[in-house]
Amino acid sequence: MKINFVMNKKLLIYLCFCLTVFARFDVAVAKVTKIEFTEFDTYSLEIIHINIGDSVEWLPTNEGHNVEFIMTPTMLSLPEKSKMNEPYSMIFQEAGIYVYGCTPHLNTGMLGLIVVGNDFHNIEDINEIKLSPVANSVLKRLAKKAKSQFKSD
Length: 153
Known about the structure:
By secondary structure, the chain is of the alpha/beta class. Helix content is 27%, strand content 22%. 23% of the residues are buried.
């Protein structure tokens, strides 16, 4: 009986020690960013800066829109595009620039840009994307603005 009590007491002390040690560390909690489809054929947030492990949720607050990725850091395989008028979410595990748009409104400039981990290593890949002149202009503006936001942070 005395051995059981000593073992339980040691276990309790060890657990208290662990809780004290781990309570001192800031626990990194993944952030969720919500983006809505607007009535003006735009996304409510055109540029976002997030960390690796964060997620983005696109919400169909207006009809006729979806999410289709046209550029990712590796370009090996693009995420599957979302269905029209349905919520979509993605967790971002790789640093770099992601560009997405609404399939039916892509060439009118309904685009968004995500910077993960403040990593701009693939920013020049934007020049390789084939879009309409209007969408190209929007994309170049987004890229320039994303870089300026990074420098001002």
